[in-house]
Design brief:
Blueprint: H1 3-15, H2 22-31, E1 42-43, E2 47-48, H3 50-60, H4 72-79, E3 91-97, E4 100-107, E5 112-117, H5 126-132, E6 135-140, E7 147-151
Antiparallel strand pairs: 1-2, 3-4, 3-7, 4-5, 5-6
Length: about 160
């Protein structure tokens, strides 16, 4: 195959939905269950908030770089062109509207998600998180009535 054809195919393939190892993703997600929630948190030792946990997942799978808005709204802004149904790996966004996003989790199947939740802006230490039982946990996607968008994050790079 000529070099220019191979280059064109590589460019097209880079834009197509990334294939991920679903078993590895599932194991990675489940391994974080019980990790503390911390407002603004972005690491497993001090805790995650909802978007910090999503960014950690993206980094672990080579999707995420630096220099972008890592809030839940910032993530949705990057993923608007990749809508999907709830499934393993889909990011599920919640809020008043698609312009007022307050929470994000990741599907582990069509009806459950894993999320950093149970806390809020006052959850700033591991002690407070423990008292609030705020941690990475499983929750039914449809239990919340404020779901506004579901997107496939493995279609793009940040």
């Amino acid at each position: 195959m000529p070099d220019e054809v191979q280059e064109a195919m590589a460019e097209i393939n880079a834009k197509v939905v990334r294939k991920i190892d679903r078993e590895l993703l599932y194991d990675f997600l489940i391994s974080h269950l019980g990790t503390a929630y911390r407002w603004g948190g972005d690491n497993p030792l001090q805790g995650y908030d909802c978007s910090g946990f999503m960014v950690e997942i993206l980094k672990a799978f080579g999707i995420c770089g630096r220099g972008f808005d890592t809030t839940a709204y910032g993530l949705l802004s990057r993923l608007r062109d990749f809508p999907c149904e709830a499934s393993l790996g889909a990011m599920v966004f919640f809020g008043k509207s698609d312009r007022e996003i307050s929470h994000v989790g990741m599907g582990i199947n069509t009806w459950q998600m894993i999320e950093a939740g149970g806390g809020g802006s006052s959850t700033t230490t591991l002690e407070i998180a423990s008292a609030q039982d705020a941690c990475i946990r499983l929750r039914p996607i449809y239990a919340r009535k404020d779901r506004v968008f579901t997107a496939w994050p493995f279609s793009t790079s940040f």
